[in-house]
């Protein structure tokens, strides 16, 4: 099923036309609090009190990044917003404004697009950010292209290149849950159908639903970005392509080695918590115990799109910001050693997600 093929879903975007569609979604979109001239003119005007602004963009393509039979419009809107908002948080900034361009097939139900707008509003709750403009166009499949702006509030931007030997590596947010949710959907285990049955206890069904929810609409810890910056973060990014791959990006940009603690070596690390939680979810895929553990391990170490924040902090930084847990350490390269991420002191077999390889 494509977005355009929903039956009995009411009027389509072709029925309403561009002006009508805009009128149908505008009241549902989140409002930015720092907007000086709202949408309605040729361009919006947004305050940038810091004198600089962060800007980033990200796109979701139907069939590539989401499937309409797995995600509602509301999920897609929340995910498109969340992955952009996370990029601003990862600089140590607060998001201020989103600009959204939509490509829609003519047969897309208006209700789906309204749902998408509600998803944007969900993701912006608790922030100053809102949708201040965008564009509507027609095409063969849905494309949601978002540009996000953010304000540093006087902080120095936290780059990927500022990790130093002796730093601790911390993570805020969940790991591997989006990947677990995707695996459940790929196995036909969608919690919107009654698939768990009596064989699955409530705790496992609840966690499986959480994984599906995070896959559909991740909830990045946005407030942790500025908090980590204030705590002295030297390097930071949001984990979009997997813990190891994104740790490797920090390592290469900084010219150092990031050694991620192996959850199998040290069951007390933070990752082990996620690993232990995800093993029962892997068992739902009818995996034997050993295979389930290795699947859960792959989700935690290489699964992307939870959009938690990964940062390096000086070891002397003192108390960690709320929700932060230590997942590794930064050390200098040995002679001839390349910069990169290690897992438990070893070179990983696989880093994580690559958009062009898949
Ligand atoms: Mg990012």
Structural key phrases:
358 residues; alpha+beta; 60s Ribosomal Protein L30, Chain: A; Phosphoribosyl-aminoimidazole Synthetase, Chain A, domain 2; six-stranded mixed sheet; four-stranded mixed sheet; 9 helices; 33% helix; globular; binds magnesium ion
How would you characterize this protein structure?
The protein is an alpha+beta fold and 358 residues long. It folds into 2 domains: 7-151, 2-Layer Sandwich (60s Ribosomal Protein L30, Chain: A), CATH 3.30.1330.10; 168-343, Phosphoribosyl-aminoimidazole Synthetase, Chain A, domain 2 (Alpha-Beta Complex), CATH 3.90.650. Helices cover 33% and strands 20% of the residues. It has 9 helices and 12 strands. It has helices at 13-25, 73-89, 110-124, 177-186, 202-216, 224-230, 243-254, 270-283, 289-302, and strands at residues 35-37, 45-46, 54-61, 94-104, 130-138, 143-151, 168-172, 235-238, 257-260, 309-313, 324-331, 340-343. The chain has a 6-stranded mixed beta sheet with strand order 8-10-7-11-9-12. Strands 3-6-4-5 form a 4-stranded mixed beta sheet, with helices on one face. Strands 1-2 form a two-stranded antiparallel ribbon. A hairpin with a 7-residue loop joins strand 1 (35-37) and strand 2. The longest helix has 17 residues, at 73-89. The chain is globular, with a radius of gyration of 21 Å. Bound molecules: magnesium ion. The site of magnesium ion has 5 residues, from strand 8. It catalyses: thiamine phosphate + ATP = thiamine diphosphate + ADP. Belongs to the thiamine-monophosphate kinase family. GO terms for molecular function: kinase activity. Substrate binds at residues 65, 305, 353.
């Amino acid at each position: 099923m494509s977005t355009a093929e929903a039956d009995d879903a009411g009027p389509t975007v072709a029925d309403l036309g561009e002006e009508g569609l805009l009128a149908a979604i505008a009241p549902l979109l989140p409002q930015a609090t720092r907007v000086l001239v709202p949408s309605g003119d040729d361009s919006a005007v947004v305050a940038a009190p810091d004198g600089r602004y962060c800007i980033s963009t990200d796109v979701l393509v139907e069939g590539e990044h989401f499937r309409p039979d797995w995600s509602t419009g509301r999920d897609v809107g929340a995910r498109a917003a969340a992955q952009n908002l996370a990029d601003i948080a990862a600089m140590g900034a607060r998001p201020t404004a989103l600009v959204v361009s939509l490509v829609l097939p003519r047969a897309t139900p208006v209700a789906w697009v309204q749902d998408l707008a509600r998803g944007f509003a969900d993701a912006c709750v608790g922030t100053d950010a809102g949708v201040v403009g965008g564009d509507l166009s027609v095409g063969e499949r849905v494309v949601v292209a978002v540009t996000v702006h953010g304000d540093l509030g006087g902080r120095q931007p936290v780059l990927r290149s500022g990790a130093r030997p002796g730093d601790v590596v911390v993570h805020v947010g969940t790991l591997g849950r989006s990947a677990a949710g995707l695996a459940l959907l790929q196995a036909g285990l969608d919690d919107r159908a009654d698939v768990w049955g009596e064989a699955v206890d409530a705790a496992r069904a609840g966690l499986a639903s959480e994984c599906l929810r995070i896959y559909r609409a991740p909830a990045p810890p946005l407030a942790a970005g500025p908090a980590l910056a204030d705590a002295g973060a030297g390097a930071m990014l949001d984990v979009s392509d997997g813990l190891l791959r994104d740790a490797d990006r920090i390592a290469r940009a900084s010219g150092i080695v990031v050694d991620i603690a192996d959850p199998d070596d040290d069951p007390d690390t933070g990752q082990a918590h996620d690993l232990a939680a995800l093993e029962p979810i892997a068992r739902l895929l009818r995996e034997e115990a050993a295979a389930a553990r290795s699947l859960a391990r792959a989700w935690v170490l290489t699964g992307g799109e939870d959009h938690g924040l990964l940062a390096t902090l000086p070891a002397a930084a003192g108390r960690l910001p709320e929700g932060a847990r230590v997942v590794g350490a930064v050390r200098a390269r040995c002679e001839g050693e390349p910069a990169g991420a290690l897992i438990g002191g070893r070179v990983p077999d696989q880093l994580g997600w690559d958009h062009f390889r898949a």
